Amino acid sequence: MSGKNDSEFFYPSEEVKAQANVKDYESLYKRSIEDREGFWAERAEDLEWFQKWDKVLDDSNKPFYKWFVGGKTNIVHNAIDRHLKTWRRNKVALIWEGEPGDVRTYSYHALNREVSRFANVLKSMGVKRGEIVTIYMPQVPELPIAMIACAKIGAAHSVVYGGFSHEALSDRINDAQSRVLVTADGGWRRGKITDLKKIANNAMKNSPTIEVCITVKRTEHEVYMENDRDFWYHDLMGLPIASPKCETEVMDAEDMLFILYTSGTTGKPKGVLHTHGGYSVYTSTTHKYVFDIKDEDRWWCAADPGWITGHSYIVYAPLINGSTVMMYEGAPNHPYPNRWWQMIEKYGITILYTSPTAVRGLMRFGDSWSQKHDLSSLRLLGSVGEPINPEAWKWYHKVIGREKCPIMDTWWQTETGGFMITPLPITPLKPGSATKPFFGNEVAVVDDAGNEVKAGEVGKLVLKAPWPGMARTIYGDDERYKEVYWKEFEKQGWYKAGDSARIDEDGYVWVIGRIDDVIKVSGYRLGTAEVESAFVSHSDVAESAAIALPHELKGNCIHVFAILRAGMSGSKELEAELKNHVSEVLGPIAKPEKVIFVDSLPKTRSGKIMRRVLKARALGQDEGDLSTLES
Ligand code: WT7
To answer: Residues 443-470: pLDDT tens digits?
Structure first.
């Protein structure tokens, strides 16, 4: 089987090739596979270490790989401290624009002062090495500042995306046993305030471990503050304790840097754990090579720092590479659909990295909004989160990139820490393909028995070798880590990505989508089990099944089949109520597109819901093998 886009190439210009950080993919790739440890050791040498490692890779306890064992470091030393000794001290580290149009900029020097002051505040609240601080914030500078402050003093952060509900927040606080929560009174989105503090207050009712809640004042609307528990960020930052001098803790390379929750096949979200050493090396190398980072660049990753994309490529990698980072608070089309293009022109952004869903959303408004602006500063574009459909790719390439900017379609996951399958600026591109493995990585598409399938055939995507940015475990649940990612191909020692894919005749990887019960909506990851358990928490619902169906803007959307409790009957009103209920329980991103009331669900004889049958029915397709269907 081959795809209709397999033979359509877009070649990089001579200009792009001439300035690329990596000039020859094949030979460096070969080297990185033949001597993986040597390759990564060299990359690690680009960073500063308090003490050099004894061993690059320790694979004595698979799948719990360790990297740069014995090395002493702190990601903050490389992201900030070392730049202060150079001219970059006065380079702009962060340009931030709020949705209402307010602007703040920080040089590396200024960012260090803010981080150090907040680190001292956290210390004064008793935050210790190894403790997990939960952060629930809008996209304001205090978000990266709080993250980096935690890392600086050896605490770990758990950032919960600001679009999540109080239940989702509370579950995550409880799993991490956080004592301290950092939040804000709200943020701006489409001209409205998202009331984060109210949600945080509700969450704290069910999260008894929280002793201290620090709130950034952003929107200045009235919020409830509880005596002895709640403090304003600006009050604390005004105290003498918030001194701008703070030592960066010396950490082991393998010490926990953060956990980040992501959805899996079961209801309970997984706290994916990343560490200081390997993650620093992996994210900074991928960023530098794939986006060809130069000191003159103005880098804009238009994700939310609350997701892995933001952790790795708004905060850590670009700062390690000494870049100037752009960050924007609000919606791409507020007040008009030219908001992003206006900012690219205003700040002279050179690289834009965003998601297919954002591209499709902006494409919908036509070409004229971007044509009002001078986008000639752009030299590279990027995409992440889900497969980008060739139409959106071509629009992005032509209208935004003026056919001059190669598109780096990067495939990776929360668990991988950084880009795994990705082009480089010199790579001939095929719209819709993430192209080839990054250095050190070996990728294969296999059948259930672990045999590589033929070129063009669809199978399961596996990663055959460890890499420094890999997750170390699921927080507090080593068994689940093994079970989810390593069990299926235990014999071979491969990591199962959970995606289906094919590799074409030219060795280009085409990721198709999730094979497990994970749904990607607008690039966000949700578990069918999470949506279903939100459904049955409504008193009218007895049972439900959630599936993903294609959606023009969102990539996928959620349809839920629901069996109501005896005596209840489905109606338009109940459908609306259930949609809102899910949105309240999980957050607005999980809101289903459609609820279908049914009397029964197709199940296997062992009682597992056959979602694939529901999906085939909904799409009017062949239902496939029904031999396991309960009759
Ligand atoms: C899943 C991981 C990594 C940052 C954002 C998402 C899908 C991600 C691509 C891409 C095709 C992609 C996969 C993957 N995905 N990037 N370029 N092409 N699919 O992180 O929430 O952990 O989701 O996103 O299905 O498994 P995440």
So the answer is: 999 999 999 999 999 999 999 999 999 9
How far apart CA 211 and CA 193 sit, in angstroms, is 26
The answer, yes or no, to whether any atom of ligand 1 lies below 6 A from the CB of 461, is no
* Lowest-confidence segment of 113-122, 259-268, 368-377, 552-561 by average pLDDT: 259-268
Residue nearest to atom 24 of ligand 1 (CA): 385
Residue 335, both tokens: 């007040």
Q: Are 107 and 151 in contact (CB under 8 A)?
A: no
**Residue range 556-573: mean pLDDT, rounded:** 94
Bond preceding residue 431 cis, omega within 30 of 0? no
- Whether 530 is in the pocket of ligand 1, judged by its Cβ within 6 Å, is no
| Mean pLDDT taken over the chain | 95
Estimate the crossing angle of helix 142-152 against helix 108-124, to 10 degrees.
60
The length of the chain in residues reads 631
C-beta separation of 155 from 134 below 8 A: no
Nearest to 46 by CA among 252, 250, 246, 289: 289
Beta carbons of 378 and 350 less than 8 angstroms apart: yes
Buried b (16+ CB within 10 A) or exposed e, 79-108: bbbbbeeeebeeebbbbbbbbeeeeeebbb
Whole-number Å distance, alpha carbon 284 to ligand 1 midpoint, is 19
- Whether ligand 1 lies within 6 angstroms of the CB of 379 is answered as no
d(CA 20, CA 14): 10
What's residue 266's pLDDT?
72
430 Cα–ligand 1 center, Å: 18
Confidence of residue 2 (pLDDT cuts 50, 70, 90): low
**pLDDT tier at 631 (50, 70, 90 boundaries)?**
low
Calculate ∠ Cα 316-321-323, nearest 5°.
90
Residue 224 CA to ligand 1 center (angstroms) comes to: 38
pLDDT at res. 89: 98
**Dihedral angle, C-alpha 590, 186, 258, 36, nearest 10 °:** 70
DSSP for residue 438: P
- Please work out whether the CB of residue 412 comes within 6 Å of at least one atom of ligand 1: yes
Measured distance CA(444)–CA(390) in Å, rounded: 23
Mean pLDDT, residues 123-135: 98
Q: Is the CB of 81 under 6 A from ligand 1?
A: no
Q: Is the CB of 410 under 6 A from ligand 1?
A: yes
Among 199-203, 257-261, 588-592, which is the least confidently predicted range?
588-592
How big is the CA angle at 534 (ends 531 and 537), to the nearest 5 degrees? 150
CA of 419 to the centre of ligand 1 (A): 10
**DSSP-assigned states of every residue in 38-73:** HHHHHHHHTS--SB--SEEEE-TTTTS-EEEET-EE
Q: What SS3 state is found at 518? A: strand
pLDDT at 513 over 60: yes
Q: How does 576-611 read in b/e, with b if 16+ C-beta sit within 10 Å?
A: eebbebbbebbbebbbbeebbbeeebbbeeeeebbb
